[in-house]
Design brief:
This protein folds into two domains: 3-270, Nucleotidyltransferase, domain 5 (2-Layer Sandwich); 282-449 and 480-508, Nucleotidyltransferase, domain 5 (2-Layer Sandwich). The longest helix has 18 residues, at 60-77. Helix 16 packs across helix 20. The chain has 508 residues and is an alpha/beta fold. Strand 16 (290-294) and strand 17 form a beta hairpin. Strands 1, 2, 3, 5, 13, 14 and 15 form a seven-stranded mixed β-sheet that branches. A six-stranded mixed β-sheet has the order 18-19-17-16-24-25. The protein binds adenosine-5'-diphosphate (ADP) and D-xylulose.
């Protein structure tokens, strides 16, 4: 019996899913929260609080320690030696900066030191900028003209120069810390960094996650020499190679074998980003299905035939791990903004939040709660309110309506009509929130029986790459929809169309 492991390192934690490939079923789920399991580290939501000038960084050593804890927890319920292949999904855009000898650290004797002790001396930048970072506006402005302007960058790389993307992040680091830049020999994305640890060797970056850097020629799936030259000196030498998402990186690292009980024959498959992985885990890697993920960020994505870019410069095209491309819209103020509204209303849990939502009249008003500066649309923190004034606990409904309308408005460029919406991410289990997405998009909303779509997609990639298993067979059992479909209330369509128009006007 072959088992595969999907590992998702997201903003707030790590989720592991073990899938039995014969029965195509999930046999184990394990989770470690960066804030909940490591309260002493002071990063309650997985990133370092209090960054200035738009900086949002995380501690890569916390990721490494959490990885070891997650693997220890896994071993409490599953024999790790039964796992035949593993693949990683990582929060996109985050980057780790290492010296040229870091591979020696990967090969250090696992019986003597922890994984983080082995990595620490090789970090040339102690912290990692993540997708929430907005500190690189100046770098985006520098990169753009050298490549013929924003739209030329979008048609080359899939996105206009975007502050959270890794290229602008690299540009800022090289500009402001030239000595540390000179010491840097390798830059990894979160997905390729964790994959490197698991394989004990320097792993490539897949074209799904690589597209989130403003450095890759999206059509050809290779690093763009012009983008590299416009970003930072000597960059080509510091990047791993690019690979297709079904490549095997190698067998399990000595660490996995000696410390965590994996079989030396376990194959490590190339990693990918959390959104590309989630596309696979939702059974949506062929065009026709639209996914909304309500996690720390709220995203909407779909596989597309051919590459399409957002003329407004806010949406993105990434590589689809199963071939072709995907479109994506990402809103920064997702779950943490909903949590802030919940706190403000003094609602003790999500049931109370859902009750407040159901007690208010729908489609009267919309409030976009921007706790942090927003990226879609680009707007400073604050609230944008349209429609009737909102009083008291009605804010719970109006805020979710504002978020759904904003996602609808900014995904129109994808021009794939959502015949139905597939919902995933932490907030998707909330029926009241799911109802708002059904009503605003005027489409039935389904969720899958397995809710950890990014970890599931990684496990499915491990099964396809490791055992050549047909994707359709895995999808048929693992991506089964939950029977509880939520239908849209058709009578609300005109009122939501009017609110969407008002929101659009408020952004103009
Ligand atoms: P990420 O993958 O970005 O780390 P998740 O998809 O795991 O995030 O989602 C985590 C978020 O889900 C939490 O921050 C929490 O606000 C939200 N969440 C969890 N359960 C619910 C619920 N029942 N209703 C609304 N939000 C929820
Ligand atoms: C996508 C994005 C986020 C991160 C974190 O472009 O920035 O969705 O992948 O989940």
């Amino acid at each position: 019996m072959a088992r595969v492991l999907g590992l998702d390192l997201s903003t707030q934690g790590i989720t592991l899913l073990v899938v039995d490939t014969e029965t195509a079923s999930v046999v184990c789920r394990t989770r470690v929260g960066f804030g909940t399991d490591f309260p002493d580290r002071g990063h309650p939501n997985g990133f370092i609080p209090g960054g200035v000038g738009g900086e949002v960084h995380a501690d890569p050593l916390l990721w490494v320690d959490a990885l070891q804890l997650a693997l220890d927890r896994l071993a409490e319920s599953v024999n790790p030696a039964s796992i035949a292949a593993v693949a990683v999904s990582g929060q996109q855009h985050g980057s780790v900066y290492l010296d040229a000898t870091w591979q020696a650290g990967l090969r250090a004797d696992p019986s003597r030191r922890s994984w983080s002790d082995a990595v620490r001396p090789h970090l040339t930048r102690p912290t990692s900028p993540i997708w929430m970072d907005g500190s690189t506006a100046e770098d985006c402005t520098r990169i753009s003209p050298a490549l013929g302007g924003d739209l030329a960058v979008a048609s080359l790389t899939g996105s206009v120069p975007t502050p959270r993307f890794t290229g602008p992040q690299i540009s800022r680091f090289a500009r402001l810390q030239p000595d540390a830049w000179a010491r840097t020999g390798r830059i990894h994305l979160v997905s390729s960094f964790i994959t490197s640890l698991l394989a004990g060797t320097d792993a490539p970056i897949d074209t799904g996650d690589g597209a989130g850097m403003n450095l890759m020629d999206l059509d050809r799936g290779v690093w763009s020499p012009e983008s590299l030259a416009a970003t930072a000196p000597d960059l080509a030498r510091k990047l791993p190679r690019l690979a297709r998402a079904n490549e095997i990186v190698g067998p399990a690292a000595r660490w996995l074998v000696m410390r965590h009980g994996f079989s030396p024959g376990c194959q490590v498959v190339v990693g990918s980003g959390d959104n590309p992985s989630s596309l696979v885990g939702m059974g949506a890697s062929r065009p026709g299905r639209v996914v909304v993920s309500l996690g720390t960020s709220d995203t909407l994505f779909a596989a597309i035939a051919g590459v399409r870019t957002d003329p407004a410069g806010l949406g993105h095209a990434f590589g689809n791990p199963m071939g072709g491309a995907m479109s994506l819209v990402c809103v920064r103020n997702g779950s943490l903004a909903r949590e802030a509204v919940r706190r403000e209303l003094g609602l003790s849990d999500w049931d109370a939040f859902a009750h407040a939502m159901r007690s208010a009249a729908p489609a009267r008003s919309a409030v976009l709660p921007l706790e942090q500066d927003e990226i879609t649309p680009r707007r400073a923190a604050g609230r944008v309110a349209v429609g009737a004034p909102v009083v008291g606990a009605a804010l719970a409904l109006a805020a979710v309506e504002g978020q759904a309308l904003n996602l609808r408005l900014h995904s129109r460029w994808i021009s794939t009509r959502a015949e139905s919406l597939l919902l995933t991410g932490g907030a998707s289990e909330n029926d009241a929130i799911a109802q708002v997405f059904a009503d605003v998009f005027q489409a039935p909303v389904s969720r899958l029986v397995v809710s950890d779509s990014a970890a599931l997609g990684a496990a499915m990639r491990a099964a396809v790459a490791g055992f050549n298993l047909p994707l359709a067979r895995l999808e048929a059992s693992l991506c089964a929809p939950d029977p509880g479909v939520i239908s849209p209330r058709l009578s609300l369509a005109p009122a939501y169309a009017a609110l969407e128009a008002q929101l659009s006007a408020a952004f103009a």
